[in-house]
Amino acid sequence: xxxxxxxxxxxxxxxxxxxxxxxxLQALAADIDVRIVDLRKRFGEIGDTRLTVMAALxxxxxxxxxxxxxxxxxxxxxxxxxxxxxxxxxxxxxxxxVIGAFNSAAERLEGITKKLNQSLGxxxxxx
Length: 127
Description:
The chain has about 130 residues and is mainly α. It contains two helices and two strands. The chain has a domain at about 1-90. About 5% of the residues are buried.
């Protein structure tokens, strides 16, 4: 288990984390510290607890907004996936229709060629 010494709001904290997560935990602690320092500059000395609660609320608000964006993006991805399926089905149907039209045209041309060959007689052949 990893451990980190972090300074938040001028106080030292010894924090435990999973091995390999030390830098990430240090960065999180530094982010909280920056927020508290900024709040202290804006509001003055209103107490460590209040500053910590305000910083926590800021993080919670950002997290809430990020979750809303994630849900909205997930909905967009689902809609795009559904549209892709519909588009693929339409493309397949259009392709089948084109193939059918070409086959029908080829059959008609073969029929016309046979009729022409029959009407011209056996000495001349077309196609």
